[in-house]
Design brief:
It is a single chain. This protein is mainly alpha-helical. It folds into 2 domains: 2-33, no CATH class; 50-129, no CATH class. 68% of the residues lie in helices and 0% in strands. It has 8 helices and no strands. The protein has helices at residues 2-15, 20-33, 37-42, 49-69, 73-85, 87-91, 105-115, 122-129. The chain is globular. It starts with a helix and ends in a 7-residue tail after the last helix.
């Protein structure tokens, strides 16, 4: 959609601004476009039920990974980013988690990305791990 692409470009410009207010707005726009319902509400928008459900499944898997493997938001964000850049690129088209990932943190990362195929940044992960479902 043209409007969404224009908003993405505007968000990138604002996020790179030397002005701290402009940077904050740019980051908020980027998070809203990534599916952060709390940020969408800041702009008077809402997620549809399907999207909210998918994000809920993602958040459940991320909390399960943190709990099962004793990870904090920083560690989980790093692992998710690495997995997204490598393993997920090969495994995203699979209908089931690869057997080699079962019982490992990557099982949860695979399921989280299957629900919502974008990595989550540390700040948003902190909210997810607090049980705020990624909303601010």
């Amino acid at each position: 959609m043209e409007t969404r692409a224009a908003i993405r470009r505007a968000a990138a410009i604002l996020a790179a601004s030397p002005d701290s207010d402009a940077r904050s707005v740019g980051e908020a726009l980027k998070e809203a476009l990534a599916g952060d319902d709390g940020r969408l509400q800041t702009f008077g928008l809402r997620l549809d039920q399907s999207t909210a459900s998918r994000l809920g499944r993602r958040d459940e898997e991320l909390r399960a990974a943190a709990t099962a493997f004793g990870l904090d938001a920083v560690q989980l964000a790093e692992m998710l980013s690495r997995y997204f850049a490598a393993g997920w690129q090969r495994e995203s088209g699979l209908s089931e988690c690869p057997a080699a990932r079962i019982g490992k943190v990557e099982q949860h990362l695979w399921a989280a990305l299957k629900a919502w195929p974008r990595p989550v940044h540390e700040r948003q992960l902190r909210n997810v791990l607090r049980g705020n479902d990624g909303r601010f």
